[in-house]
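DM from R.C. (forwarded with permission)

"hey, sorry to bug you on a friday — could you get me a structure for this? deadline for the figure draft is monday and I only need the backbone to look sensible"
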Amino acid sequence: MKRILDSSRQNIIGARIRQARCKIGMSQQQLSAKLELFAVYTCRGSISRIENGHRAVTDIEIDAISRVLGVSLDALFGREEL
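My reply, with the result:
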């Protein structure tokens, strides 16, 4: 089966996640722990790979990340300011 993404980048929002997380002074470990409150189990290493664009991110993860970071989905996708 042909891959949808042909580049080495696996997602388009990783950098925006990092930016939003750093803006509020949250570590990757803290983000991982807070995601568990939404029953989303994403370890610190996976968050690092998401932020670096080396791992795809699911819609469930995107929703939970936006809630934990207190930003809209539009902000994560770059359609509005963080």
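R.C.: lifesaver. The longest helix spans residues 59-69.
me: no worries. Helices lie at 14-23, 28-36, 44-51, 59-69, 73-76.
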